[in-house]
Design brief:
The protein is mostly helical. Helices cover 65% and strands 1% of the residues. It has a two-stranded antiparallel sheet with strand order 1-2. Helix 4 packs antiparallel against helix 16. It starts with a strand and ends with a strand. 48% of the residues are buried.
Length: 395
């Protein structure tokens, strides 16, 4: 979720023309659904205590995979948007300044809030909170470190690595012939699918995480390790180049939505290792690119509109705020009540979503947006050109 400027026109594709460079409001709207998938995954876990018994186990199983879906979406979207909006006159230093300004203000505020609300009572070692503060916790396979303090912030550690590597990755992806972009995209898809195969064959297989079908090393390698998650980021870059060079194959938004729904059903039937990332790369990648093409061609889109734009704009803050609200509510309020009926559990979950969204808006309005306006826009003397329009879709 970042703020960037439009790139120069892309070279013509097979039709002899480049796609028009327009804002992509539908991708902003899609961010809301991805953040909500992560929220629903977390609010329906057994640890929250909203849904108990066999019904609670079924609900947790139905929605647990939403976390993997949402994170994969954001990683692929990040690569897509950063490639789409790359500035020809940009420098690595200016690029990193914008990315750091996007990540750290929200991260620091939610880090402090998490410590005050719940983490301060359980985290006493600097080996847990210090890596989280500097977003390097995702390099540890110890879940007490990886998911310390504000749990969702582990993905920001991955994004930080992506941003550091982006100038070199962009140069490499830009050198690929348009005629070979699809071959490269399929190759990266194959590697993404091969990751859990490798993990299950080579890494330790004893179950050490309660309630999980994998151990901490397998989970970390597939789900948290930045070089592995970078595969999805590069896939997003390749898809952006496919669209920019007019090489899209014609998959429509509704078709990509159907494929994503099918992938969701399949994810409930396969081992956890494959539902973390591998199952999502193809349908989510197609959905992002197809949605971008729909905006380019001014086609109707269910993800466009004033409300969807607002929800999408606050989605980064929702993503970072959810753990503080959910864990704080569970420890200080929900654990003292219950058990809940199904209707009561759904009602409490909706209330928690409203509270999370309201607090996220405050974070967006008082921290994220002012920081971006103050520090992310390049000065004219830095670029030598006037500032242009902005695109706010990737993390």
């Amino acid at each position: 979720m970042t703020t960037t400027e439009y790139p120069k026109a892309a070279p013509p594709g097979r039709s002899g023309r480049a796609p028009s460079l327009t804002s992509l409001p539908s991708l902003t709207g899609l961010r809301f659904y991805a953040a909500t998938a992560v929220f629903v995954c977390h609010v329906t876990t057994g640890n929250m205590g909203l849904f108990s018994g066999e019904r609670g186990k079924d609900i947790a199983r139905w929605f647990n995979v939403g976390g993997g879906l949402g994170v994969s979406f954001f990683f692929i979207l990040s690569g897509f948007i950063l490639t789409w909006s790359a500035r020809p006159s940009d420098t690595p230093l200016l690029f990193m300044r914008r990315r750091v300004v996007k990540l750290f203000p929200n991260h620091l505020v939610t880090f402090v809030l998490a410590l005050l609300v719940f983490a301060g009572a359980t985290i006493t070692s600097w080996k847990q909170w210090l890596p989280n503060l500097f977003l390097v916790q995702t390099w540890s396979w110890d879940p007490l470190v990886t998911f310390s303090v504000n749990q969702p912030s582990w993905s920001l550690g991955c994004e930080l690595v992506f941003y550091l590597c982006f100038p070199l990755l962009y140069r490499a992806v830009n050198k690929i012939s348009p005629a070979r972009l699809w071959a490269w995209a399929v190759a990266f898809l194959a590697v993404i699918v091969a990751v859990p195969v490798f993990a299950s064959a080579v890494l330790p297989s004893d179950v050490t995480l309660p309630g999980w079908q994998t151990n901490e090393i397998q989970n970390w390698f597939i789900y948290n390790l930045p070089p592995v998650r970078m595969l999805e980021f590069v896939l997003g870059m390749l898809l952006a180049r496919i669209v920019l060079t007019d090489r899209w194959v014609g998959v429509k938004v509704w078709q990509a939505v159907v494929l994503t729904a099918i992938a969701y059903y399949v994810s409930l039937q396969i081992p956890l290792l494959y539902s973390l990332c591998a199952i999502w790369a193809a349908p989510i990648g197609l959905l992002i690119a197809a949605t971008a093409v729909a905006d380019i061609r001014a086609k109707r889109s269910p993800f466009r509109g004033r409300v969807m734009k607002w929800l999408g704009e606050v989605s980064f803050a929702v993503y970072l705020m959810q753990a503080t609200v959910l864990i704080g509510a569970q420890r200080h309020i929900l654990s003292k009540h219950g058990p809940y009926t199904l209707a009561e559990g759904i009602g409490v979950a909706l209330l928690l979503w409203v509270v999370t969204t309201a607090l996220a808006y405050l974070l967006y309005a008082l921290v994220e947006r002012p920081a971006m306006k103050r520090f992310s826009r390049p000065r004219r003397k830095d670029l030598g050109v006037p500032a242009t329009g902005q695109l706010e879709n990737a993390r």
